[in-house]
Amino acid sequence: MEPQQNALSSEGVSQCLKLLSDPTRLLMMKLLADKEYCVCELTAIFDMSQPGISQHLRKLKNAGLVRERREGQWRYYAIHPSGPEYTLVRSILRQIDEKDGVLQTLRLKEVTVSCR
Q1: Which residue ranges does UniProt annotate as crossing the membrane (predicted)?
Q2: Domains plus CATH for the chain?
Q3: Mean of the per-residue pLDDT values for the chain?
Q4: Residue 66 to residues 1, 27, 112, 116: CA-CA distances in angstroms?
C-alpha cells in the first residue's frame, strides 16, 4: 500500500485533533474556512476578550492552520490553504452541520460586526 500524498504522521494528526477539540477553535476554523476575519470581528462574534481570541489564533497560527495578514493596525486571519493539515481540517469542518444552532448564532452575529 502506497502512502497517501500529504499524509500526516500520527503525531501530526493528534496535534491537529487536539487543537480542534476546543469548541471555540473548531467553530473559529469553520468561520475562517469561508472568509477572512479581523481579530475585532472574532472578538464580537465569540463575545470574548481580544487577548482570549488572540490566544486561540496564535495556537492555530503556530500549528500552520491559519494565516495572518496585516493591514495597518488590523490583523486578518483565514484558514491556511496549503500544507498537509489542510485536507484533514477541511474534512473535519465538513462534518459540522450548517444548521448547527451555535454555528448559526455565530453567523448571525458576524452580520452586525464592523471594525472600521
Answers
A1: none
A2: 10-109 (1.10.10.10)
A3: 89
A4: 32, 13, 24, 23
